[in-house]
Amino acid sequence: MKIIFAGTPAFAAAALDALIQANHRIAAVLTQPDRPAGRGMKTAASAVKLLAQRHRLPVLQPQTLKTPEIQAQLSEFHADVMVVAAYGLILPQAVLSIPRLGCLNIHASLLPRWRGAAPIQRAILSGDRETGITIMQMDAGLDTGDMLLKQSLAIAADDTTLSLHDKLSSLGARSIVQALELLPQGKLTAIKQDEKQACYAAKITKTEAEIDWRQSAAHIDRTVRAFNPSPGAYTQYRHLTLKIWQAAIATGKAGKAGKAGEIVAVDRNGITVACGEGALRIVTIQKPGGKKLSISDFLAGNPLQPGELFTAVSDSMPTHD
């Protein structure tokens, strides 16, 4: 099958690699323009572009798909289908209509749940027990098109956005290969999404990652996991902003004492902090400008004592679970 592929990050690169390995003809690859990245803010190519270059595939990096020029260029490829995965640009109707079989999107949720930009983070934050991949026939709406193929995946109790992203990347790659095998055979049934079940995964903001210790330990645990690897859940201690990268809900007596944010126990295996309900045991932590450290390494240069407090920049956040 002759394909135009559109995607940008590692999630999309996994799908492109699977399509290449399945011997599909990749007529062109669309990806976001190179942008500054990393601490040095040096201009960097996307994961999709790097993969495409290794396979000597034509790469296009338009700022928009709304101009007649790029639309004419895409039409010249005479593609059977366009596959889209975390591309980052809006596809106007003129582009959606170009491929013979339309445009298929690889979305990292079980639609219509978690349409939008951050489905993995939102699923973890909400305590969902499962997520998955939906292969969708794209239309002009935001993840509103008919569903062609769905594959579910359990969310483990210790899954972070990073670990779940990697699982969904692999599942998405397998799913799009399967969908493209079935599509020309007429074996995919288009199912309309139930608008009553729809919810949106809004883009993540840094302020959401600030820990409010008045929340339950279960909620804060989900916050830590949802914001790993970015932007990192954080809290205040002695006027320092500490990022918490790994934690677990505390059990036993430690979870039954102390006011919200109070350190109730300290040992080499963790720092236990009282929450609005229950307690959280911090396992991996990071100071500003420092490395991620285990608690035993952190305590070697930063002695903490029971009774001290972790605080938030803003104490006016509403509580909820």
Structural overview:
The chain is α/β, with parallel strands linked by helices. It folds into 2 domains: 2-201, Formyl transferase, N-terminal domain (Rossmann fold, 3-Layer(aba) Sandwich); 206-301, Methionyl-tRNA Fmet Formyltransferase, Chain A, domain 2. The protein has helices spanning 10-21, 47-54, 68-75, 93-96, 119-125, 161-182, 217-226, 295-301; strands spanning 2-7, 25-30, 35-37, 42-44, 59-60, 81-85, 103-107, 115-116, 130-137, 147-154, 200-201, 233-237, 240-249, 263-267, 270-274, 279-286, 292-294. It has a 7-stranded mixed sheet. Strands 12, 13, 14, 15, 16 and 17 form a 6-stranded antiparallel sheet that branches. It has a two-stranded antiparallel sheet with strand order 3-4. A hairpin with a 2-residue loop joins strand 14 (263-267) and strand 15. Helix 1 (10-21) packs parallel to helix 6. The longest helix is centred in the middle third of the chain and has 22 residues, at 161-182. Residues 316-320 have low confidence and may be disordered.
Radius of gyration: 23 Å
- Which word captures the global form? elongated
For the terminal residues, how far apart are their CA atoms? 47 Å
Rounded mean pLDDT is 94
Instruction: Name the helicity range.
Output: 10-25%
Order of helices and strands: EHEEEHEHEHEEHEEHEHEEEEEEH
Give, in spatial order, the strands making up the sheet with the most strands: 5-2-1-6-7-9-10
Spans of 5+ residues with little confidence (pLDDT < 50)? 316-320
Number of separate domains: 2
Would you tell me the structural class of the helices and strands? alpha/beta
Name the CATH superfamily classification of the largest domain. Formyl transferase, N-terminal domain
Would you tell me which CATH topology of the largest domain applies?
Rossmann fold
Major beta-sheet overview: 7 strands, mixed
Strand tally is 17
